[in-house]
Each structure stands twice: as C-alpha cells, then as structure tokens.
Amino acid sequence: MSIDADEVAQIAHLARLAVNAEDSQAHAQNLSEILAFVERLGAVDTSGVEPLAHPLEMTQRLRPDEVSEEDQRERFQAIAPLTEDGHYLVPRVIE
Amino acid sequence: MHDRTIAELGAALERGECSSVELTRSTLKAIEQATELNAFITLTPETAMAEAAAADAARARGEAGPLTGVPIAHKDIFCTEGTRTSCASRMLDGFVPPYDAFVVSQLRAAGAVSVGKTNMDEFAMGSSNETSWYGPVRNPWDIGTVPGGSSGGSAAAVAARLVPGATGTDTGGSIRQPAALTGISGLKPTYGRVSRYGMIAFASSLDQAGPMATTAEDLAILLQAMAGFDRRDSTCVDRPVPDYRAALGDGGLRGLRVGLPREYFEADGVDSEVTRAVEAAVDALREAGAEIRGISLPNTSLAVPVYYVIAPAEASSNLSRFDGVRYGHRCDDPADLEDLYKRSRGEGFGEEVKRRIMVGTYALSAGYYDAYYLKAQQVRRMIRDDFARAFDEVDVIAGPTAPSTAFALGAKSDDPVQMYLSDIFTIAVNLAGLPALSVPAGFGGGRPVGLQLIGNHFDEARLLGAAHGYQQLTDWHTRRPSLEG
Asked: Name one Pfam family in it (chain A) (predicted).
C-alpha cells in the first residue's frame, strides 16, 4: 500500500493532527514504507485462528458500582490550560 | 560508594558506613558532573534529601528494609505528584501530576530515595532515545553512540553508576534493549505483574514496568517492591508475589533446561560479535550444569510487523486523550475547537509519535481494520502459541537481546523500519506477555552485548535465579565505563 500526500492529510485529519504541508511528503514516504513492511502479514495463513487481544486471555475484572473517589475538581483543574467556574474552556462551538 | 550494588549499599547503610543523607548528596553531585550524558530530564534534590533524612530516621528506629535510603531514579513516564512528568514530550513539558504512579509509591514505601526523572524516547516510542523533546541520551561507553531506548536515560544512569537502580517500562524491548546496549541488567516482568497505574500509556496490551540495575540480585530487590496487586489497574493480576531474593539461592543453573531458538541464531543482520558473545554465555550455562536444547519459534520474523500494527493502533487510541483541554500543551489563539485539537497535538507531539498515531489511525480506519488489526491479532496468537509449545520442553529460552551493539547517534533516525528492527528479539516477548531479562554477556568492539533469557508466565523467580547463577560465573556485570569526574 502506497500512501500519498493527500492520504496523509486525510489520516492526519482523522487523528486530529496538524501536519505541515512541507512534511507531508516525508510522512507519505515513511508511512508507505511502514505499511509495506507490515503487509507481509497478509501472506500468512490465519484461517481458523482466533484474534488474541490479551496476552494472558484474562477478562476484565469488574468492581462494585459504588462511589470510590472523592471530588478533587479544583486540584485537577489547577493543571488545565483554561478553566472558569469549574468548567474547562474551549473555543465557542455553538453560536 | 558509586560502584556498589543495591544489595551492597543496603548492607553498608545498615553497618553505618555512611548515612542515606551522605549517599544521596554524593549521588546528586555525581549526576551533576555527568550532564553530558543527558540521562535526566528533572532532578529533585530537595525531595531527595528529605526522603534520605526520613530513611535515616527510619533506620534509627529499626525499620529499615533492603531499599531504605538507597538512591534510585524513575523513568519520566511514571507520574510523580508535584514533580513534572514529561514523558519526554513537549506535550507534557509543563505537566505536574496530581498523583503518584503505583510503582513510585511502592518504591517510596520501601524506603528508596528518588533523585529524579530520567530521559527517554518521547512517549516511549523509540529504540535509541533520540526522539526525546529534551535531546538524545548518550551511551556512557561511547558518547558518540546511543544508549538504546526507550528507557535510555535509566540505562545510561545505571551504567555510569550514577544510581544503582532505576525504573523502566518495556512495550517492545524498552527495558531490555537499552540494558543490553549499556551493559546493565534489566527485567520486563510478566504482563500484569506490576501495576500500570500512573504509568503514561503507550500500548496497553503490551506495556509493563520493570527494574533496571547492575545485577540480577538487585533486580530481585527492586521487583519485590514494585510487584503486587493494585485494583486501579484492571489488567494487574491478583496473584501472590514470591520472595524473589530468597529464590536466587546460589544460582539456579544445574539441570535448568535452556532452549536456543534456531531463528534467534540464524537471523539475518545479527552482528557476528553479538552471536559470538551469546554463544560463549551459553557455553558458560552448559558448563554450570544447564541442559541446552535446540528449539524453534517459527513465527519469529512476523513479530516486528505484528507489533507495528498493534502498538500504533493502541497508541493512536491512548494518545487521543492529549487534546489541549484538560492538561498538557495547548496552542495559542485557536480559531475553533478543531483547530485547538489539531494544532495542540501537531505542536505537542514529535515526528515519531505523529508517525505512529497516523499508522495506528490508518490500521483502525474503516475498510482496513480486518486486513491490519485483526490479522495482526491472529498472528499474535500464533507467536504466543510458539512460546507455549517451547515451554513444554524447556524452562527458559536464551538468545541475544539485540542484533547489534550500540550504534552511532543518527545512524538509523531517518529509517523507521531499520530502527524498528533493533527490537527483533525483544518484541515477541511483549506480544506473548512473557517475562524476560537482559544481562551483560561480554563486548563487541568495546561495546556491551546482552544475553536475553525469556521465561514462562510468572516465572520471574526462575529467570532471576538463572541470571544470578550466570553472574556468579562471570564478571561482565561488574564492568563499568570510564567517565571523567
């Protein structure tokens, strides 16, 4: 699979990443090489093989649905770039 | 004091040869004199001296353990309350976590003194420590070469005997490969053995924390403190922690069945000096009574391609949390919300991190998911099954940790695939969730070579015993680079 600069722009948009236009060509070449490298997997016969998601095949542990954390909003918001009245601020979304 | 192991320092402190305050002060001084290595991102002299004083007080009360008062360093991927935790990224350059990682609080509770945070590849993505926002770490054996990665700062700091031990993380070899390239010992525990709580996530089905030190005995002491159940990591395994140090004995080599995978010794692109050193190490194991057997791990060559689908896929998901809203880098004057996300991430992440996020995004995108991600997960099972079959016949698997010794700075930085192949012998272990360690096993052209020993799930005690036995027979682990000052 070969990736061109337009596809880099599309992937970067999906990943919400600003990529400089002058870097797009280098990214296109690197991504193409990496995808060519991993494409050898396509030649492996995996019929009947179950995908492995967890190396020990353990299932997710559940916990009782009860309050376990105290309110630490002020502490956590102290490291935020921009807050007001306990809210995180972002540029206006709805006019 | 600076060429002593953790075990020796613990004994010296207990005998009163020095105090932790004295030891910590001289450790901080040694670190300041070794800035050319760039092994640290942040030093914490004030908290270190306070912890040292507290350790001395605990010892005076008769409450000292093997780590009480011993200086260590943490990879800058572990959250430390009140101390900047950057993950070597511009994204987290100003991030001061409001809580400690499990590993950090465990080691503090054991009395260890943290002197600072070590340099690393950005978000642990790299095999040479060249992707750090804070610049590359240099290998103390030859400062024109890399220390390996991603735990390169921890490795260089221990190799230069600045600290006797440090923490690391290993997603595809990030403890073992730098340990090999800098001539120290490093252990990646079984997936789930050590809690990942407070450890900044890269690839969650592969990430695991572990210790780095000069000897297997010291790895045992550190792992003892780091391991244990923690309900805050949903993949942490609730299973008793054995007494690793007691299990070392005088080395568990007699009768040990050691498998040599044909594929690890016949692989293309392995330095002949590496193969020679590892073969000599295997001879030493045989002479000590180990039973050496040839085995096969037929899907070995597929491990790196599988990893470079699964790890970027998980990374693209994990790193979506860095959005410029709640913490971390935020761009100036965003035009709208999408601009805020895109520019904050575009400015905050370095090139290798962006590359992996994009590979992962592509592999998970509609129309490609089955061909890349599901396929990789299927081959992942085949790789794991190869190991399961091997462990029916042998107790541990031995081979080289890395295909080469330390390479020059810049040698592979323009060729991602060549860089990825630095981890050809370590990556399969993460895919299978197995424990493995690297110990020094000689030199090639004056640069260290590592012997990798891979064990079955939760068989860390046997692995450490074998490594300890090997270190009773050899003195490679005592060799240290000569540095000025």
From this structure: GatC
